[in-house]
Amino acid sequence: MTVIDVHAHVFPPISRADSRVLRDQDGPWLRQHGDGTGMMMLGDAEYRPVTQSLWDPAVRVAEMDRQGVDIQVVSSTPLMFGYDTEVARAAEWCDRVNAQMLELCAAAPDRLVPLCQVPMQDTEAACEAVTRAVRAGHRGVHLGNHVGPRDLDHGAVTEFLTHCAREGAAVLVHPWDMADDPRTSEYMLAWLVGMPAETQLSILRLMLSGAFERVPAELNLLFAHGGGAFPYLMGRADNAWHRRDIVRKDSPRPPSAYLDRFHVDSAVFDLRSLRLLVDVMGTDRVLLGSDYPFPLGEAEPGALIRASDLSPDEKSALLGRNAVRLFGLEDLVGPALATTEASR
Length: 344
Prior knowledge:
The protein is of the alpha/beta class. It has one domain: TIM Barrel (Alpha-Beta Barrel), CATH 3.20.20. The protein is built from 14 helices and 13 strands. It has helices spanning about 15-20, 55-65, 85-105, 125-135, 155-165, 190-210, 210-215, 230-245, 245-250, 270-280, 305, 310-325, 330-335, 335-340, and strands at about 5-10, 30, 35-40, 45-50, 70-75, 110-115, 140-145, 145, 150, 170-175, 220-225, 265, 285. The strands form 4 sheets. The protein has a 5-stranded parallel sheet. Strands 1-5-6 form a 3-stranded parallel sheet. A 3-stranded antiparallel sheet has the order 2-3-4. The longest helix has 20 residues, at about 85-105. The protein starts with a strand and ends with a helix. Pfam families: Amidohydro_2 (PF04909). Keywords: Decarboxylase, Lyase, Metal-binding, Zinc. This is 2-amino-3-carboxymuconate-6-semialdehyde decarboxylase. Belongs to the metallo-dependent hydrolases superfamily. ACMSD family.
């Protein structure tokens, strides 16, 4: 089975000087310690300790070999989005990050597949950026699930998603910028509660606002972390749509009718959760995603899928075949798997 991890982060070796393109004082950059460790920085402030696999392609590929991962679809760390900055600076920043992403992946072009980032605070700039990036070699784009108060159903964002569909750029949506709430300030609850809620919110807004009726069906859309809380609570959303006119006022169909409009990764860490996810989404809509190389990710990418009661053919779909279709990776997997995928 070809194994493709579609949710893997990188942080290119961005210097403090580079970070000032985005913000004068607290831009994101990477401090390397020279011993295989480093620190993600925001200006002078330390944000998170990291290891060399986050920025060194040789170390990453060696780790992939050990883990049995053939290809990673790599995206920047959400800390790097820069949505809160003046548009011209953000556009220059994204172009620099995207160039460094291409350089990093060029070290192993048959193993590392780049996704770009774009200045989502301005639709025209974002569309121009994703067009440049795709033509330069990126396979799609990595987005935060909202830009300030604008969620994915906002007209400016659906215009961008429509542009991505026309460009053939797959879209990976990652939760970020969770609400600052004292109740989630401990125990990483912003990540454990806030992130799943953010993803559920974005999916339901696309469904209930009628945005899926406006965005082309050709859009290849992928949500991280197993779709957050959505798969478990889909029945609640359907029930509300049938019973309350204020829920269905903008959506001609119940939420479950739109399950064929997006994909989710497999980062749910529990066999029962994976079974539910596959039952809700279908075997052609779930892709291996590990959240590599961060501590909250799957330590052995694909181990959960392999340990499940899915059939060998279903496991093959989740581990790699679905990713080939979504990201257009036929040129990397070889003729055998590409021919198998094309026949399905």
